[in-house]
């Protein structure tokens, strides 16, 4: 989610769900140790709970960055061992780290040792179920077992292999088959760990099936595994970004809390207020912030025209309140025309 889940995106998502845990885009250790720390780590207090996701493979560097994350107030430090991009591979981190479980364990231990309170700010790991054509369950089982010995108690598992050669990052999210049964086997083999599933989840029915351990074709396919078991959470990536209104039901459905009474228009107005605040406090234009909410009216009449207005670079110099008014006029015209 590099360049996607920045602080403005997370502020927007927090308006939709009070309880869902938000994650930063992956930030490399080099960017923090040799770049602008404030630009990468600052966030709005409203974003809590929020996790800092790091990319790196040197224990000392990751320890220093984990310490920075704790100092800046993050609620979790996550090590990415799942990204398959060539750029990440050249840095010797991401999914290729799954081939070196002891190194990952050393990284986790160094990060935990660097924190003042590793119980309050846990170190977690996001990873795949395998790399390349290695499709044996024991590969991911042994990876998790080794890393857990270093003190990691939460594993976020993208239920696809990462093919390190021959597939683009986009293809890596679509072509390798989903193996949800491997994630359930991990929870069954490591019941004391928190196991969170990721990959291919686009509806509440799918999420509930995984969280509740309901029978499913994918889980039933693992005859040796003993069937599905309840999992501890689900991570949603691009579907949440492209269809953000989905988040508005999560507090009620997954946390047992009253859902927000806010409408999409309410959320849009609050984002305009945020744009104006960012303009006043930091001199930021609204255009780079608005891109994160373009899916807000996904599936509604006039959504296309609404997106066109909010993404029109010719309007960059306008007050965002005026842009919002133009976008609503476009929706009204589209609805009147039956578009």
UniProtKB/TrEMBL annotation:
Organism field: Hylemonella gracilis ATCC 19624
Stated name of the protein: tRNA-dihydrouridine(20/20a) synthase
Residues covered by the DUS-like FMN-binding domain: 1-319
UniProt GO molecular function: flavin adenine dinucleotide binding; FMN binding; tRNA binding; tRNA-dihydrouridine20 synthase activity; tRNA-dihydrouridine20a synthase activity
Keyword Nucleotide-binding: yes
Gene: dusA
Gene3D superfamilies given in the database record: 1.20.120.1460, Aldolase class I (3.20.20.70)
Signal peptide as annotated in the record: none
Top-level EC class as recorded in UniProt: oxidoreductase
Database matches in NCBIfam families: PRK11815.1 (NF008774)
EC number: 1.3.1.91
Alphabetical UniProt keywords: Flavoprotein, FMN, NADP, Nucleotide-binding, Oxidoreductase, RNA-binding, tRNA processing, tRNA-binding
UniProt-annotated site: Interacts with tRNA, residues: 80, 170, 173, 304, 307
Residue numbers annotated as active site: 83
Cofactor(s) recorded in Swiss-Prot or TrEMBL: FMN
Function statement: Catalyzes the synthesis of 5,6-dihydrouridine (D), a modified base found in the D-loop of most tRNAs, via the reduction of the C5-C6 double bond in target uridines. Specifically modifies U20 and U20a in tRNAs.
Entries under SUPFAM superfamilies matching the protein: FMN-linked oxidoreductases
Pfam families per record: Dus (PF01207)
CDD domains: DUS_like_FMN
Keyword Methyltransferase included in the entry's annotation: no
């Amino acid at each position: 989610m590099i360049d996607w889940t920045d602080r403005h995106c997370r502020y927007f998502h927090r308006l939709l769900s009070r309880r869902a845990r938000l994650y930063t885009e992956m930030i490399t250790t080099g960017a923090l140790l040799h770049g602008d720390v404030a630009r990468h780590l600052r966030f709005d207090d409203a974003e809590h709970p929020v996790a800092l996701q790091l990319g790196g493979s040197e224990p000392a560097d990751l320890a220093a960055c984990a310490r920075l994350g704790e100092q800046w107030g993050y609620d979790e430090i996550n090590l990415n061992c799942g990204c398959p991009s060539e750029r990440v591979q050249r840095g010797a981190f991401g999914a290729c780290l799954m081939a070196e479980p002891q190194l990952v364990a050393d990284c986790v231990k160094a990060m935990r040792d660097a924190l003042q309170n590793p119980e309050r700010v846990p170190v977690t790991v996001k990873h795949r179920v395998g790399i390349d054509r290695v499709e044996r369950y024991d590969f991911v089982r042994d990876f998790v077992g080794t890393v857990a010995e270093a003190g990691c108690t939460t594993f976020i598992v993208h239920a696809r292999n990462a093919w390190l050669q021959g597939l683009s990052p986009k293809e890596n999210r679509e072509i390798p088959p989903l193996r949800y049964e491997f994630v359930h086997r991990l929870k069954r083999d490591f019941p004391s760990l928190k196991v969170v599933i990721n990959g291919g989840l686009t509806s509440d029915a799918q999420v509930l099936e995984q969280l509740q351990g309901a029978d499913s074709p994918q889980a039933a396919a693992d005859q040796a595994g003993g069937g599905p078991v309840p999992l501890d959470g689900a991570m949603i990536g691009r579907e949440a970004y492209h269809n953000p209104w989905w988040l508005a039901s999560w507090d009620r459905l997954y946390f047992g809390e009253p859902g927000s009474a806010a409408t999409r228009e309410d959320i849009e107005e609050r984002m305009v207020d945020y744009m104006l605040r960012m303009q006043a406090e930091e001199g930021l234009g609204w255009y780079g912030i608005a891109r994160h909410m373009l899916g807000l009216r996904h599936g509604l009449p006039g959504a296309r025209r609404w997106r066109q207005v909010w993404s029109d670079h010719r309007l960059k110099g306008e007050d965002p309140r005026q842009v919002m008014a133009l976008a609503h006029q476009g929706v009204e015209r589209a609805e009147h025309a039956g578009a």
